[in-house]
Amino acid sequence: QVQLVESGGGLVQAGGSLRLSCAASGRTFSSVAMGWFRQAPGKEREFVGGISSSGGNTYYAESVKGRFTISRDNAQNTVYLQMNSLQPEDTAVYYCASRGSWYVLSRPVDYDYWGQGTQVTVSS
Known about the structure:
This protein has 124 residues and is an all-beta fold. It is 0% helix and 48% strand. The protein has strands at 3-7, 10-13, 18-25, 34-39, 46-51, 58-60, 68-73, 78-83, 92-98, 113-114, 118-123.
């Protein structure tokens, strides 16, 4: 059984930083791509970014490019989302997700396992 557990969310002022972690178990972590998504109240879940199985390729939504960085530690079965220069519009529940292939895709339907989500709130 695959489990993904996010941590690191919280309340931060605009301009601040947070680092989210996602610990994975139950799947050969180093063989699968990982994605980060977010969902704000009343909005659809959207792709934030993703990282290929080896970590050699990363992709970001335009809205976070240059501010967010995704990395992974395959020895620790963990993927990270470093978020800098946070803005109120970044407020959402953030989810990590796993898909059964090495390359990144951006649609939620392309991912088969999801974490429970962690709340990120950015105050102005």
